[in-house]
Amino acid sequence: MNTGSESAPQKGLYMNEGYQHLKNKECQALLSPQGRQIFAQRKIVFGQIKACLGYKRGNLRGMRQVRIDMGLVLMANKLLKYNKRTT
């Protein structure tokens, strides 16, 4: 039984230096001119997928199933773009 005179162990703060390094590296990559261009294109593609296909949320779990699902969605998006371009 705890009488109150004992103090609870203090939790320490742990910083993962490797993670912080990778996080800073990715931040610098995104802030570069090429990174900004790629990120802008990414927003456009996902906006088109949401607007044209109505795809807003994945229903599958697991890396393999999500990759297959996103592959199909991206293929459908490309086919729609191709169809609009050729007609």
Tell me what you see in this structure.
By secondary structure, the protein is mostly helical. It contains three helices and no strands. The protein has helices spanning 17-31, 33-53, 63-86. The model has no long low-confidence stretch (mean pLDDT 83).
Primary descriptors:
single chain, 87 residues, mainly alpha, 69% helix, elongated
Number of helices: 3
Strand content: under 5%
Biggest sheet character: none
State mean pLDDT (0 to 100 scale). 83
The Cα radius of gyration reads 23 Å
Q: How do you describe this structure in short?
A:
By secondary structure, the chain is mainly α. The protein is built from 3 helices and no strands.
Please outline the helices and strands:
Blueprint lengths: L16 H15 L1 H21 L9 H24 L1
Helix pairs in contact: 2-3
